[in-house]
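Thread: "does anyone have the structure for this chain?"

Original post by V.I.:
We have the sequence but no experimental structure in hand. Need at least a predicted one for the grant figures.
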Amino acid sequence: MPPGRRPGARCCRTTRWCRTRCGADWSRQSATASCGPPSGWLRSIRESTLEGLDTAARKGKHGGRPPVITDDMLHTLLRRRAGGECVEQIQLDLIIPTVKRKGGNPSVAGIYRAVAEPAKRERLKSADADASQRMPPAPSSR
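Reply from O.Q.:
Generated one for you, tokens below.
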């Protein structure tokens, strides 16, 4: 630690990196110039993250939490909704197969979201199809 800095003192930024690595006096305006990560540091982190995501995508893996309502549950849900049952009755019979709440029932809000998802996807597909029909053809380059 540079002389004159007390332990735990902040410089002009409150990031952990800056608190531990910056040798500037935090009370001066010139501290801004010496703070922050070295040049290229963030860029290399971003590039390595993107490379890792590309590698995972090639392996067929993707991030994110697994869905609570599976395709089988959704099929059962839609069939029973078409039969006239209310969501609260259906909820009691659905059991979450995986994740944190395994063995529990999905929430009513989650069920409504799952019911709305296929309709939302269908609307987006039709909107994309309409937009592609309305777009003029791209100019040919000769």
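V.I.: this helps a lot. Helices lie at 16-21, 31-34, 41-58, 71-82, 87-93, 108-134.
O.Q.: and Residues 132 and 139 are 15 Å apart (CA to CA).
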